[in-house]
Every structure is written in C-alpha cells, then in structure tokens.
Amino acid sequence: MEFRPLRMFVEVVRQGGFSQAAREVNATQSTISKAVKQLEDEIGVPLLDRIGHRSVLTTAGEIVYRRGVRLLADRDDLLAELDDLRGLGRGVLRLGLPPIGSSTLFAPLFATYRQRYPGVEVQLTEHGSDRLEESLRAGEIDFAGALLPTSEDFEVQLVRREPLVALLPPGHPLARRRRIALAELRETPFIMFESGFALHRVILDACRRAELEPKVVAVSSQIDFMVKLVAAGMGTTFLPRMIALQRAGKAVRCVPLSEPGTDWVMAMVWRRGAYLSAAAQAWLDLVRGYDWGEPAELP
C-alpha cells in the first residue's frame, strides 16, 4: 500500500470533502479523487459512499481511516528516528500553535530554539486548538499548543493558566463591575471565535452549565476585529486576561468572569507513546525549563 493515496483519503475524511482536502494539500480535486479510487481498487471495497455532494464513510472506510491515521503517524515517527542518526545538526521540528496567545507565549521560546539549533528546520502550523489536536493525532505535527482539558491520547506540559475576561463597551451596564457571571450577559450579544477554536467550546460549555443560550451576532478568528466589534457596541467577546490587556485599549472594558471552569489553561501536548526526535526532545526540554512568568493583573 502506498502512503500518498492513504494520506489523501485521510485528508478527505478530516476535511469533510474532496474540494476541502484538495485545498489543504495543495492539489487538484481530480488528483484527490484518483488517489482515493486507487486506494479503493487496491483494497477491493468502497471506502466512501458518494451521496450527492457529500461523502460518507463505509464500514470498511471507517477501519481504513482509523488504522490509516496510525500508519501515517508511525511512518513519520520512523523517518524522524532515522533523521536522528544524523544528530541535531539537522532535522525537522513540526509545531502547531493556536492564534490566541502564541505571539506572547511562544515567540521568545521559538527565538531561543532557533539560536541554539540553527540547523533544524522548524515547520509552523497555525490553527485553533481543536484542529491542531486532529493534526497531532494524525502525526502531522510533533507538538501542539492546546487548551486543557485535552484528550488522554496526549502527554501534557503545562505552560500558562489565565482567567477569562469579558470585553465590554464602556457604556455597557456591567462594564464597571469587578466580576460578572455569564448569566448576567443573557441580554448581551456574543461575538465568538470560530468552532475550530477550543475557546469557542469553553464558552459554549460554560453557557450550558449556566443554562444560557447565547445570542451570537458574529463569528471570527481575528482578535483585533472582534475587539473592534465590541468597541463599536455590537456585543461582548471573551479573551484570556493577558491577551485582553494587550489588545484592549480605552474603547473597551475588561471584566473577569466569575464562572467556574472557564480558566484559559494553555499546554504543550504531544502524542502519548510517540517517538520524539532529537529536535522534538530539545524543544520539549526548552519548554519544561522556561520561565513562563506570573499572570498579569487588570488595572
């Protein structure tokens, strides 16, 4: 079995369609279709049911997808282990970092790593935490910055814990409060991160616990845009305190949430039992020994 058709099939399933997979791997849709057909011919059974514009996994497809993810991850581990025979003069470190907090937390660490190991190629991927966990599970990256709690499939190194704050326009009735509960924002529209962001899940889970159905007026992945929407009076959004202090000027107020279970807990995670290359182990050692500092306080 060739790995290329298998990788393309896995990508079709992960991305939810042929056109989405083609964009992700920078190939044409016909190339993806041919690769999946090649894999089906080799195995001898259909892997996908084509229903209109949708493709649904067959029973055989579910087996091939589940084991294919592991095979591809094991292949990447094999190549990384062979690379280690050449030492840290070269190698590849594959990092997945979320947009929220990465510039503050990981940019200085990344610079230190590059200074110590200039021969290592660092491949950076940026997505929301939930999407990065999928890539990590598939063996496409060595480490991911992820919000806790996370899957038991992963080993965890804690990086930073920050409370979440609600960003409100200065004229909002709750803008001068020292703390607020989510239930008090029942009449305030929510500006949410996209569903691939773990923070999206954190807020929705907290709303369910508070028996609150949020009125979502906008969904975005751009922090600055979301802050400007708050400043324009469109509603409220939520950020870790350290990010809010950097992005929020006089046009918005930051009020900590009193809701339990809403802390933003960033960690570096990797596949449990996975082989860590010398380049990856050097990154992990740096993360473990780094001084992540103390959380800042709101003025």
TrEMBL record:
Cellular component annotations (GO), alphabetically ordered: cytosol
Annotated family: Belongs to the LysR transcriptional regulatory family.
This protein's name: LysR family transcriptional regulator
PANTHER family: HTH-TYPE TRANSCRIPTIONAL REGULATOR YBHD, NITROGEN ASSIMILATION TRANSCRIPTIONAL ACTIVATOR-RELATED
Residue stretches making up the HTH lysR-type domain: 1-58
Organism: Paenirhodobacter ferrireducens
SUPFAM superfamilies cross-referenced by the UniProt entry: Periplasmic binding protein-like II (SSF53850), Winged helix' DNA-binding domain (SSF46785)
Alphabetically ordered keywords of this record: DNA-binding, Transcription, Transcription regulation
GO molecular function: DNA binding; DNA-binding transcription factor activity
